[in-house]
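step: validate -> pass
step: tokenize input -> pass
step: predict -> running
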Amino acid sequence: MNHDADDSILQTLDALDERLRRVSWYLSGSEGEDVLRAVAAQGRDHTVHSRLAKLEKDFDKIVASSSTIWGLLQLRAKYPELFHPNITDVPTTLSTAELIAIIVSCAPSFPTTASRLIAVKDLPIPPAKSFAALIALQPRLAEVELLQQSQAKEMAELRARSARAVQRWYEVGVLEEGECWSEWEERCVEVEKKVRRAEMHATQEAKEKEAYR
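step: predict -> pass
step: emit ->
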């Protein structure tokens, strides 16, 4: 039983080693099929630990020499859900016939998607001069953003000051002026009453004097 397990481990390491060399060949083109055959014919004389160490070392070399793989590893570290999506929402109650029907109904869109991807691949890459110009504009864009933030802050302060001025005008120019007019009206009413009393008193005295004559 242990012998079978060792054989499985060694076979797995052989497969990993071969795949790693294939990846290196696809990326750099430095190794050919003859090297792959030589790797397959090396045998199983190496220990598991040394084989794993060699695989890790070769993998690190490939990562160091390929910006694409390095970018993929960075993307995997930041967004692991892209490489291990959550498939718990996939319906599992559908029968095989229903799943086949769904796949067949979506099959016509596969060639269209493939042709669109090929068209995107064939699109020319913009010249580096344009990107360099955009990068050169970055400091000016940062200054404009700071200026916009400063103007927005100043406008907020002006709005607050305007609101306080309107509130002050309403309190002083409207409410207090209304109270002042109300007080003056009350005083005018009181003065008018006193004037009428005085007039009535004077009229009454004049009538009494005439009556005594």
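step: describe -> Residues 128-212 form the longest helix (85 residues).
step: cleanup -> pass
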